[in-house]
Amino acid sequence: VKRKAVSNFFKFIFLYLIFMIPFLLINNIGDFLFEFICYFFILLPIIVFYFLNLDFEYIKKLINHFKNIIIVLAVISIIFYILTNMNLIQSYDSVLLKWNHIERIQSKFNLYFMPQTKLRNSMFFTEPAMYSIFLVLALAIERSCNNNKVNKLILLFTILTTRSTNGIILGIIILLYDYLFLHKKNIFIIITPIILIFASFMIFNIFSEKILTLSYKTRIDDYIACIKAWKDYPLFGSGFMNSNHIQNYMSYFRRSNLGLSNSLFVVLAQGGLYFLSIYLVPLFFMIKNSKKTKFQLIVITFFILLCTTIFHYTIFALTVVAIGISYTTAIRSNAFT
What we know:
Number of strands: 3
Low-confidence stretches: none
Oligomer: single chain
Helix content: 55-70%
């Protein structure tokens, strides 16, 4: 344990408690007090302390290890995906999935699961959109750190097999970013407009197909319901993990599907601007210092995922927030070089 890390941690805890205790007293936490204390008074500080004890280069290695694990999962899932769709693999296992509602889903040897259809790759995640979060973030990490063409191809192909609109569009945007910032030859001036037009056409087509679906209408309704609920309690929100107030503003057409689909606006509605700052402030400081770390694309990708996918109270989301907090705390005390 580093002495400087301990000093930074106590500074963080002092300011953190001053910030969080008023929220704990004012926000309508109710039945979710235990979860709130576990997530934000125990788990998050522990993760912050862990990262404060690490050199930044080691943190970058950990992020790379995370990316490599996702690539391995991607290869495994592609194999299962292809064999399953070619009917070359026989397995009649099934498990119970509780995700909005309880249902029994098929699995292949309890390694590969099909919560929706065999045409959508979910690996062992609750749905393809959840899987695409990790694939897209791994693609952004690969682009920022190693930029290996084979790895990028594996990740992009796997994103396509999830058939997740958010994942595919983000994958295209990351590849565009990759091309625009890496190529500086004269032919770049000629090819760039063609690539931009082609990419825009692809994104438009994907979005046009999505906009006609019930899933798209439900997602838009989520944003509207969250904003309306937030307006009632703009500073401290309607209650941690309390979706009832948001559901009051949902449209009638989706009353059979009350599940929420994005993180940022749910946190805004449930915790107000006050609680949302725990997520946004660390991300802001990471982007501000991203020229030193090459994390700009990764942080922006994570922010977009927060706006489009639901995973705000997961260990994964808290870990990213903790990295941002530890980095910000260390930078302000010159602990990272």
